Amino acid sequence: MMSVTSIARNKVLPFLRKSTKMQSTASLSSLVKLEEKQGYAVVSMQKTPVNSLSLEMIQALSQSLIELEKNKCKGIILTSACPGIFSAGLDIREMYQPTDDRLNQFWSSLQTLWLQLYGSKMATVALINGHAPAGGCLLAMCCDSRIMLNGKSKIGLNETKLGIVAPSWFKDTFVNTIGVRQSERALQLGSLFSPEEALKIGLVDKLVPDMETATAVAEAELKEFLQIPGMARYLSKMKIREAAIKDLSETREADLNQFVNFAKTDAVQKGLGLYLQSLAKKN
Ligand SMILES: CCCCCCCC/C=C\CC(=O)SCCNC(=O)CCNC(=O)[C@H](O)C(C)(C)COP(=O)(O)OP(=O)(O)OC[C@H]1O[C@@H](n2cnc3c(N)ncnc32)[C@H](O)[C@@H]1OP(=O)(O)O
């Protein structure tokens, strides 16, 4: 197993320099497990119970990607060690009654992670072994291919159901994945799709019946990507993604301010509070 080590800021890609203070390495590495395989790595999110994307979780994923690229890793399978859940999306508690400093760090770190993963030179396969709402769906869409475990899990951008709006770069990622019309409808309705529905609209590429098959199919899928000359594959990916990446890179500050101001409005705070209560009541 590789360790997640701290990375010197001046060695980081230019868009990462804007990132905020990183947490200590030890606290981050317990959230993400990296397993080295032959020619690639398996990145498993392991923040129980639901892999919610807290500031620390986002930074752990970011540092893992930096570490893997530094080690010349060519491809990853991004998956979850939490049974039944790929990721529950952004940690809602980060947005509910936040301090300004933490909220700023949280969003800025998320921007960084998206820029890294969506623009990664590595070949990336998401093995979606459970629910993937909102930010969980975003993580999966950042990958080059999505394999989903068939069953009761749901995937999609359900932000409107929480009374919040998916920002432009979430929307761009969605449109690049499933097209304009499907995105327009699903974004408004906050649709969460079953694996069969997700396959039908192209939100995922393949379904698998069980974890044993899932691992084999994800490995085969990654190997197919890795057989293509790396530079040609990466530049082709960028033809589709570079406009969205450039857009956020150039508007990070404005996007951050918009998010912070929006998140702090009474209406959003009230909505998030009620949503957290509804999750707690379930149990
Ligand atoms: C610039 C313009 C403005 C931009 C505005 C902001 C844009 C924000 C963009 C993205 C938003 C998000 O990603 S918001 C997160 C959306 N996620 C969800 O709606 C999922 C919510 N969770 C669930 O539906 C379920 O938990 C589950 C289906 C994922 C799993 O169900 P299960 O029954 O297995 O587990 P529990 O529901 O019992 O949950 C266990 C435990 O975890 C807590 N939990 C769950 N999800 C979250 C979360 N996203 N954040 C924080 N905490 C979460 C849940 O409350 C339980 O806690 P307790 O055990 O303490 O009760």
Structure description:
It comes from Daphnia pulex (Water flea). It catalyses: (3Z)-octenoyl-CoA = (2E)-octenoyl-CoA; (3Z)-dodecenoyl-CoA = (2E)-dodecenoyl-CoA; (2E)-tetradecenoyl-CoA = (3Z)-tetradecenoyl-CoA; (3Z)-decenoyl-CoA = (2E)-decenoyl-CoA. By secondary structure, this protein is of the alpha/beta class. It has one domain: 2-enoyl-CoA Hydratase, Chain A, domain 1 (Alpha-Beta Complex). Helices cover 52% and strands 13% of the residues. It contains 11 helices and 9 strands. The chain has helices spanning 25-29, 55-70, 92-95, 100-118, 135-142, 168-178, 180-189, 195-201, 211-226, 230-263, 266-282; strands spanning 32-36, 41-45, 75-80, 84-85, 123-128, 130-133, 145-149, 155-156, 206-208. It has a 6-stranded mixed sheet with strand order 1-2-3-5-7-9, sandwiched between helices. A 3-stranded parallel sheet has the order 4-6-8. A hairpin with a 4-residue loop joins strand 1 (32-36) and strand 2. Helix 2 (55-70) runs parallel beside helix 4 and helix 4 (100-118) runs antiparallel to helix 10. It is globular. The termini are far apart. The relative contact order is 0.12. Residues 1-22 have low confidence and may be disordered. The chain binds ligand L4P3G6V5. Ligand L4P3G6V5 is lined by residues 49-50, 52, 84-85, 88-93, 131, 133-135, 158-159, 162, 164-167, 255, 258-259, 262, 279-280, 282-283.
Structure characteristics:
mitochondrion; alpha/beta; globular; delta(3)-delta(2)-enoyl-CoA isomerase activity; binds ligand L4P3G6V5; single chain; acetylation; 3-stranded parallel sheet; 6-stranded mixed sheet; 283 residues; 9 strands; 2-enoyl-CoA Hydratase, Chain A, domain 1; 13% strand; fatty acid metabolism
